[in-house]
Input
Amino acid sequence: MSVKISIVKTFSSAHFLIGHEKCGRIHGHNWKVKVIVEGELEEHGWVIDFTILKNITDELLNKFDHKMLLPNSINYKDDGGNLNFTANSKKYSFPKEDCVIVPIGNVTCENLAYLLHNELKEILKNFKNIRGLEVMVNERDEQGAAFSGW
Ligand SMILES: [Zn+2]
Output
């Protein structure tokens, strides 16, 4: 019997979008990440222990929490303590320790969902009963993006 289970985890971070007038200004979200895992029930009657799935997800999200999320499509000048760069024709300088350069071209819900899906899939492949994964990233309650596949 194949069943879908889900958990929700959150993190808070700042970002801006490249190529968008309003969202090109720095702002923050309390991002909500929903992870849906599909699989055969194992001997105890669950797909995966909720606590294990939450811990795996937390570990992936912790690196983003209370950070400035930056895309990898920008040329950064690292002066030792700060990242200096130009984006949307504006000059920025942020303390390096407050930033994460995320391996996506623009920090959108869509790209974050795709990235987190890939990262989670790598780990969940070790659970032989799992056969489906969907990751939904919401930047607000009423808007978000999902990526699914296995
Ligand atoms: Zn935003």
About this structure: The beta strands are 2-15, 27-40, 67-71, 77-78, 82-87, 90-95, 99-102, 130-140, 143-149. The chain has a mean pLDDT of 97. Residues 83 and 94 are 5 Å apart (CA to CA).
